[in-house]
Amino acid sequence: MNRQWVLAQRPVGLPRHIDFAKREVPVPTIKDGEVLVKILYAMMDPAIRNFLNAAGSYMTPLPLGSPIVGVVLGRVEQTASPALQVGMIVSGFGSWSDYVAAPAGNFSRVPDDLGSRLEDYTHPLGTIGATAHHGLLSVGNLAAGESVLVSGCAGAVGSLVGQIAKLKGAARVVGIAGGPEKCRRACESYGYDECIDYKETRDLSAAIRKALPQGANVYFENVGGAMLQAALDNITKNARIVVCGLIAAYNAVEPLAGPTNLWNLVVNTAQIRAFRVADILPQHAYLRTIHSEIATWIKGGRLVYKVDVRDGFDAIPDSFGCLFSGAHDGRLVVKIND
Ligand SMILES: NC(=O)c1ccc[n+]([C@@H]2O[C@H](COP(=O)([O-])OP(=O)(O)OC[C@H]3O[C@@H](n4cnc5c(N)ncnc54)[C@H](OP(=O)(O)O)[C@@H]3O)[C@@H](O)[C@H]2O)c1
Hints:
Structural class: alpha/beta
Shape: globular
Strand content: 25-35%
Low-confidence stretches: none
Helix content: 10-25%
Bound molecules: NADP nicotinamide-adenine-dinucleotide phosphate
Mean pLDDT: 97
């Protein structure tokens, strides 16, 4: 049988266990051109929360009763396509299920020459590594000697952004995270020169000004809301604001107030630009370049990362909720099958 977590009701505010229902259905059969993938790891990505709303996101809204979709890492069990062979480890867009049947083109073979552990491909050698690298360097156009500010700096994406910034010669890298433990890890492990604990800071704008008196050349936004407001108070001339995510808004029941200081963009002739990693996933040569560079850093001991692996299919709904309480440590994934 094939276990699935489906959308039982649309979450209002924070996602709760009762928003999801577990069901068992027969293992799907494949058609010409498709593969049957046994899912090993389901990635807990905050963007999934947006797929559960009636308004949808960059995907059509997930219908009630449908399996929850997301990025997965799995093994090809059956194939009706010359593109993928049985036994290959693949990643792609799947669902919170044991098995998924889909066109072979939905999955890419995971290269086995870059990382030694399967978990590497859930984090720095997967979509998260591509998000951090592409966002900071191609969208943010970071140049050596510049200063960088990152919200959500101890999370999956943020923990890589700080290190990549330093590896590319950033002069000063400041992060924002929730809690002393996350701030300690950001400074000791993830390349940050300083980390602002927003939960203990009354005036975020002043705290950023103290940490970055000259302002930020690049602001890498993972959170939004009050953080974007405070960051916009502290940008340099020709700054780049990279909008990777806006997690503070994902569970909001009312629209968040927008920044009131957008004029600072004009004052500083700054650019604000969003991106989606999904748009670069089909660019295989570019992705390979990104992941090869990250793999070199890992092998040289110059880039560290943490994968927080939760065990078992039943752990998925509660694990997903941890993304929004911050009760996780690094890249959050659930191991579904061996
Ligand atoms: N553009 C893309 O293609 C792309 C790809 C991947 C991810 N993303 C985005 O990147 C961001 C980070 O994703 P991730 O996978 O690295 O997750 P993550 O940072 O590992 O986990 C989410 C973190 O966000 C913080 N957070 C949650 N709710 C918050 C709130 N209301 N206010 C302030 N902070 C809050 C928490 O950290 P604290 O404990 O520090 O508060 C939590 O640990 C998300 O916005 C995600 O949607 C975008």
